[in-house]
């Protein structure tokens, strides 16, 4: 069967499957998860989306563990949340950790056991972005992106799983990206790490459902944070500037609220993006040849824009 035949088949199957999915969600009435007193472990809580998630879960009455590298920023956030404390809220706890640390799993296990002795919600949020051409990118950069965005989160997840399995409940939320669904030029290492995250946690979802553990992969479009500022360049230096796309992105508090809703409703995944981006994701599946042509044109355009700036 040729490419066109396969794509037509997809279109024919896709419509009825979407209609059945809609019917399933309309008829299934799952009870909302009550967040009060739940223990939430958030990586990358020192800034951006992680910080917004910490605020959102704290205001829902959760016991929040603020994990990250920057102790000073985490303590500042803890103090800020404490200063607004209402009677139903718990004081957050700071946990200093680096996703590149080989012993991160032992540290997480110890922290969970010694802080509240349980964990209900894990938010695998910390991450870093990248800008560069494959041909110019150092292997160390590819490796770092893979460790920070994917392998580090695997270690943390494995450390918390025994607690959730014993409790027979839990929620694991992974902050991926729309780039975990479709790769764009000059973001190879970032897109690869997010694709890996998507695949790994899709596997895990199936394996842990019978323990009452829910896995949700969140794939947002641009969010107004420091992600592009902190992104790595091909040579390993910091990109160091805010890209316009990021500046025009979603408010991190809006995205954090969507993540809270995902946990409450036990969602399996969320693609938070404008319609045309969702269309591009569909195009990648239904008409890959067209998607590849569009991306090749984009790569050429970016290259000539870069040459002009030199
Ligand atoms: N912003 C966007 O446009 C966008 C879009 C889609 C998905 N996302 C995803 O959203 C997540 C949060 O990013 P953000 O947008 O909030 O960017 P951000 O403001 O740069 O936050 C990134 C967080 O990750 C932490 N981090 C980085 N490397 C770490 C390491 N080795 N160990 C521990 N923590 C580390 C940072 O901590 P330090 O303070 O220690 O650096 C920071 O707290 C990321 O997974 C990102 O891929 C972002």
UniProtKB/TrEMBL annotation:
Molecular function via GO: oxidoreductase activity
Protein's job: Putative oxidoreductase.
Tell me where the transmembrane regions lie. Answer: 6-27, 270-292
Entry protein name = Dehydrogenase/reductase sdr family protein 7-like
The GO cellular component terms are:
membrane
The organism sits in which domain of life?
Eukaryota
By sequence similarity, the record places it as follows: Belongs to the short-chain dehydrogenases/reductases (SDR) family.
Keywords (A to Z) from UniProt: Membrane, Oxidoreductase, Transmembrane, Transmembrane helix
| Chain segments annotated as coiled-coil in the UniProt record | none
Keyword flag Lyase: no
Is Transmembrane helix found in the keyword set? yes
């Amino acid at each position: 069967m040729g490419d066109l035949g396969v794509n037509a088949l997809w279109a024919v199957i896709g419509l009825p499957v979407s209609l059945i999915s809609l019917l399933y969600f309309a008829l299934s009435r799952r009870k909302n998860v009550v967040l009060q007193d739940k223990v939430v472990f958030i990586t990358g809580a020192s800034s951006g989306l992680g910080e917004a998630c910490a605020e959102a879960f704290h205001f829902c009455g959760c016991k929040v563990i603020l994990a990250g590298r920057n102790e000073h920023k985490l303590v500042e956030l803890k103090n800020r949340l404490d200063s607004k404390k209402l009677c139903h809220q718990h004081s957050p706890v700071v946990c200093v950790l680096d996703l590149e640390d080989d012993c991160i799993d032992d540290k997480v296990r110890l922290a969970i056991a010694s802080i509240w002795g349980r964990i209900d919600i894990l938010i695998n949020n910390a991450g870093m972005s990248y800008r560069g051409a494959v041909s110019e990118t150092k292997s160390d950069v590819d490796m770092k992106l893979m460790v920070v965005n994917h392998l580090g989160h695997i270690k943390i997840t494995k450390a918390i799983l025994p607690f959730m399995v014993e409790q027979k409940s839990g929620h694991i939320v992974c902050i991926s990206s729309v780039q975990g669904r479709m790769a764009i030029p000059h973001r190879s290492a970032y897109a690869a790490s997010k694709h890996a995250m998507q695949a790994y946690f899709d596997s895990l979802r199936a394996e842990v459902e019978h323990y009452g553990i829910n896995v949700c992969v969140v794939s947002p479009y641009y969010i107004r944070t420091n992600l592009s500022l902190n992104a790595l360049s091909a040579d390993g230096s910091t990109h160091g500037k805010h890209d316009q796309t990021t500046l025009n992105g979603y408010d991190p508090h809006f995205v954090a609220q969507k993540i809270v809703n995902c946990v409450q409703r036990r969602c399996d995944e969320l693609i938070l993006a404008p319609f045309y981006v969702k269309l591009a994701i569909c195009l990648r599946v239904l008409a890959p040849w067209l998607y590849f042509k569009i991306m090749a044109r984009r790569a050429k355009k970016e290259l000539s824009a870069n040459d002009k700036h030199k």
